[in-house]
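Slack export, channel: ligand-projects

TW: morning all. Re-posting the request from yesterday since it got buried. We need the structure predicted with the small molecule present, not the apo form. The ligand is zinc ion; the SMILES is in the block with the sequence. No rush, but it would help planning for next week.
GE: picking it up
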Amino acid sequence: MVFKRRDILKYLVILVIIVSCVTLTNKTIDKKLLIKETVIEFQELFPEVNVLNARIDVSDYTTTVQEPTGKTRLAHGICFYSDKRIIIGKRFLETGNIYQIKKVIFHELGHCYLGLRHPQEDKFEYTIMNIILDTALTDGSNWGYLKGELRLRYIRKKHK
Ligand SMILES: [Zn+2]
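GE: finished. pasting the full token output, ligand included:
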């Protein structure tokens, strides 16, 4: 069997398409798994609420939020209080690091299932409920602290 240059090119293109498909699929599975695992982690921290069936959709949407600095930017996540539906921004899910993504999921679950709000804009608080993405450090070294803070925040709110 003799391969012509055109044939080789054709097979190369097919190979590239197959490799990209596998890569894309893996990426989607990983992030979906990350969402699932994060929900289970939240459930373990808050056994008094039931989040295992929480509806979390990944979608491109264009809601903006106001930052404490006065700037507006695209929201990475949103909670619809009426039906406790959560949307995570598709682009953010692709580009965010693991702890940023976990923070946004915990943040939105905190709105929808714990009834927590953002801290006052004029005072900075080191919490999952602020809207500063970088509160969760990339290496995960303060994730345990942030989870403890969220737990305390919820208990304090319940006993008010
Ligand atoms: Zn929020």
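GE: first-pass observations. The domain at 5-158 is CATH 3.30.2010.10 (Zincin-like). Helices lie at 5-45, 90-95, 98-114, 143-158.
TW: perfect, thank you
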